[in-house]
Specification:
This protein is an alpha/beta fold. The protein folds into 2 domains: 269 residues, Alpha-Beta Complex (Spore Coat Polysaccharide Biosynthesis Protein SpsA, Chain A), CATH 3.90.550.10; 40 residues, no CATH class. It is built from 11 helices and 13 strands. Strands 5-4-1-6-11-8-12-10-9 form a 9-stranded mixed beta sheet. The longest helix is centred in the last third of the chain and has 22 residues. The protein is globular. It starts with 13 loop residues before the first strand and ends with a helix. InterPro entries: GalU_uridylyltTrfase_bac/arc (IPR005771), NTP_transferase_dom (IPR005835), Nucleotide-diphossugar_trans (IPR029044).
């Protein structure tokens, strides 16, 4: 295994948030409203993602958007008329909530002209990111304890160089819904000279990646959830990556190439195994679960909501048994 350089790794400062998807699974709600703006209680899902990036020290955020996504830009902009109305009412709580989204980070935007896949969306960020490592956060995945996952991934990138993906073990029947990784353990000695600190059991080396494999061809039960730290040389690989599964340019395919390289050429690829709670808001049932769980975790809502939920569930059980 090739070791990472002994010098300090370039700092990860920038985050890329792909937000150009059509949101067809949530039609007709997403006919005029971006799926990223669907609320989780009283904040749009994409704000949680930006907050996660900021909590990990990534204050430069690039949104890759498309047509009909203007409301995302509006949400992270100042709303002077609304702010003035709230100030006149002395409604400081809502005034703070409205202002919060516009002061979270330095947010930039670029358009993905046509939906050609996640890899192409990431490639659209090349001019803004330049020759720096960067994070990619998918808005469909909300991560509990998110600040620890990204910081852990940054730590692994600092130790080994290359790229890092967040992995999660799933039941066999779910592997074909994700990019799936072949992995092997790593040891302290793999980090190279000059790199100190023990390598946790959550760190693995990714030796291969397959996008949405059939169950019988899956290399493991470890799949990529929507968090990546990418070496900037991924852009050169993406520029040469042909359309893959679904006729789209897949980020998984580009990372598969980097997984075969040493540090000097943009590799390797490591994984951080996440064992916490992940909320997949990309499908309707999980989206509803997310809303309920986030609401129940809110002290201002739980006192009224949780007893009602218990009553509702008990009533459903009675009705089901006639």
């Amino acid at each position: 295994m090739t070791h990472s350089p002994t010098g300090a790794a370039p700092e990860v400062r920038k985050a890329v948030v792909p937000a150009a998807g059509l949101g067809t699974r949530f039609l007709p709600a997403t006919k005029a409203t971006p799926k990223e703006m669907l609320p989780i209680v009283d904040k749009p899902a994409i704000q949680y993602v930006v907050e996660e990036a900021v909590a990990a020290g990534l204050h430069d955020v690039l949104m890759v958007t498309g047509r009909s996504k203007r409301s995302i830009e509006d949400h992270f902009d100042r709303a002077y008329e609304l702010e003035e109305a709230l100030r006149a009412k002395n409604d400081t709580q809502r005034l703070h909530a409205v202002r919060e989204s516009s002061t979270l980070a330095q947010i930039h935007y670029v358009r993905q002209g046509e939906p050609r896949g996640l890899g192409h969306a990431v490639l659209c960020a090349a001019a803004h990111v330049g020759d720096e490592p960067f994070a990619v956060l998918l808005g469909d995945d909300l991560i509990e304890g998110q600040e620890t996952l990204l910081n852990r991934m940054i730590d692994v990138r600092n130790r080994f160089g290359g790229s890092v993906v967040a992995l999660m073990e799933v039941p066999p029947e779910q592997v074909s819904q994700y990019g799936c990784a072949a992995i092997q353990p790593v040891a302290d000695s793999d980090a190279g000279p000059g790199v100190t600190g023990s390598v946790s059991a959550d760190t693995v080396l990714v030796t291969d990646l397959v996008e949405k494999p059939p169950i019988e061809q899956a290399p493991s039960r470890y799949v990529i959830i929507g968090r990546y730290l990418c070496d900037p040389r991924v852009f050169d690989v993406l520029a040469e990556t042909p359309p893959g599964r679904g006729g789209e340019i897949q980020l998984t395919d580009a990372l598969r190439v980097l997984a075969q390289r040493d540090t000097a050429a943009g590799g390797p690829v490591h994984g951080v195994v996440f064992r916490g709670r992940r909320y997949d808001t990309g499908n309707k049932v999980d989206y509803l679960r997310t809303v309920v769980e986030y609401a129940c975790a809110r002290p201002d809502l739980a006192a009224e909501l949780v007893p009602w939920l218990r009553e509702f569930v008990d009533k459903e059980k009675l009705d089901a048994h006639g």
